[in-house]
Amino acid sequence: LKMSWFWFYLPLHLLMAACLCHSIKAPTTNSQQSFKTDLFNFYHSLMLADGKETTVHLLKDIPKRYYFVLEEGRALAPFTITVTPCDVPIEWSILVHKASASFLGKAARGDHDTEEVSKSQKAPSMVSTIFNYKGNSVETYMGMSSHSALYMLEFLSTERDTHITVYLTTDTTSGQLYPELPVDPRIDVIGIGHTTVTLTWKHSPSVLQHRENIQYCLLVNEKHNYKSLCAAETAIRSSGMKLPPTLALSLSPYLLEPQQVMILSNSELSIINKASSGEVRQICMGTKNTYTVLNLSPSTQYYFDIFIVNLLTNASAAYTGTFARTLEEPEPKVTELKDGKVIQVVLDGKKQKFYSLQYQARHKKIQFTFQLCRGQVRVHITKNGKTVALENISGLRYFLLKGKLLDTYLVQLRSTEESNSSVKVQVSPHFHKPLFPLLPESLKIKSFSKLRTCNSVTIAWLGTQEESKYCVYKKRIEEDQVWMELRSADRCSGPESRHKSEKVLCKYFYDINLQRAVTTETIKGLDAGTLYLFDVYLFGPSGIPVRYHSKVVKTRKKC
């Protein structure tokens, strides 16, 4: 047998006469009658291509039919049909119409006459359903035919509009369009952590034969497994994400949507889609058959699907998906706070973990003091399980709280930036002995542009009503260092971290009238056209310094 699209050569009136004759013979089922009705009008029907994957769009409750013909030419030739639903379950079936072999053969060649047509009308004919299926799995039918026959594929979606792919081939000797799955297509979970899952799977025979054209792609999501890459992509698009066709399987560049992140490292392509339904990751890792998925959320169930993909044809086959739940995050360690003791906490911005501090009150009134050293920190204070303070802090922040003896306070700290943050914390009932100095209204340093010269600058800063010590430091920097210097400055570090050559002066001052509590200083001996970083440190009775916000000033190039 061989494939022949004989209707291109068959005169329409002969074909219709043959079909009408067959339709009078023998009682038929509804499907068979529908088949014969289509045969009567199939001169405008859809023909299914051989050896090519066809995308079929289905409207809800409206059947769609495709045809192909097997013509007598050699005995017992096989053919296969693979149907891949890309969304909802569908119904599909294969019907066959067998007719006179000599008539179909001669008609295909155009070698016919009126007498032959008359004979064909008397030839026996039979319409039968040889296969039907309902579901959303990828299904393949393998058939063998020894008669000339016209086949019809009927597809129906009863849930909603959808699309599918159909692949027909009568050439089973030159290799399959789809990559081959191993005998055991299951994915094994061999390791589970708080934020990681390690997977392994059997190699596809296609990888061993065509390594350069085959690769594995992994889909990770929080909803369910997908039975085909086509179905996965449809679900991602329907969630509001626009996804390039077939997951950038050719690794060609394309424009990502704002909700997409593409990561290419160590020959692995990762696409992360953000949506309200959860995060969806797609990772292509070449021909490795073991992979560890990183940066997952603790105590979360994930679904994993592996697709073996032919990069030349974009055809794919799906392994049997699996799922795993990451381990629960361990309870954070709680550090006990002691009266008057200062502790400095460094917070990991990437992991976004809470750092917990606990304090049991020995007085009815207590005061929490936070000094932000670097980054941005969110503070959450609870008393006996109820929130009493919640805010992002900057600079120096005090919380005066009232309660009962033995009340339990829990302080949770978290960095609000991706970079690390740090903060100093103290709790104390002794309000009359403040740990930090009295602060001015603002910790900004001001410079006077009109007073700048080639070798000097004038700066000013606010003071307070109590006499305090102020020390000024300077540091020469380059243009490309400004952002890093300001970004990485540790506002909790004191002059002990500075080089002695950077010290300019120390002075005491105060003013009862806050409006006059301002001091200025002219720093001389500078180089022309040069950037300088200036810092002022304020010391209180306890000796713990508070650092003003750094100021960058450039001397004049010409005077």
Descriptive key words:
repeat; Protein NDNF; Ig-like_fold; heparin binding; 6-stranded mixed sheet; 7 helices; single chain; NDNF; mainly beta; 7-stranded antiparallel sheet
SS strand fraction: 35-45%
Principal-axes geometry comes out as elongated
Structural class: mainly beta
Average per-residue pLDDT, rounded, comes to 80
Taking pLDDT < 50 over at least 5 consecutive residues as the criterion, the unreliable ranges are 1-28, 40-44, 100-123, 242-267
What's the multimeric state? single chain
Distance between the termini: 98 Å
Number of beta strands: 37
Radius of gyration: 39 Å
Helix content: 10-25%
Q: Main beta sheet, described?
A: 7 strands, antiparallel
Number of helices: 7
SSE arrangement:
Elements: E1 2-3, H1 12-24, H2 30-40, E2 46-47, E3 52-58, E4 64-71, E5 77-85, E6 90-98, H3 101-109, H4 114-122, E7 126-135, E8 139-145, E9 149-156, E10 162-169, E11 187-192, E12 197-201, H5 205-209, E13 214-221, H6 229-238, E14 260-265, E15 268-273, E16 280-284, E17 290-293, E18 301-310, E19 316-318, E20 322-325, E21 334-336, E22 343-347, E23 355-360, E24 365-374, E25 377-383, E26 386-393, E27 396-402, E28 408-415, E29 421-428, E30 446-447, E31 457-462, E32 468-477, H7 482-488, E33 503-509, E34 518-523, E35 531-539, E36 545-547, E37 551-554
Parallel strand pairs: 2-4, 21-23
Antiparallel strand pairs: 1-4, 3-10, 4-9, 5-8, 5-10, 6-7, 6-9, 11-12, 12-17, 13-16, 13-18, 14-15, 15-16, 18-19, 18-20, 22-29, 23-28, 24-27, 24-29, 25-26, 25-28, 30-31, 31-34, 32-33, 32-35, 35-36, 35-37
Helix pairs in contact: 1-2, 1-4
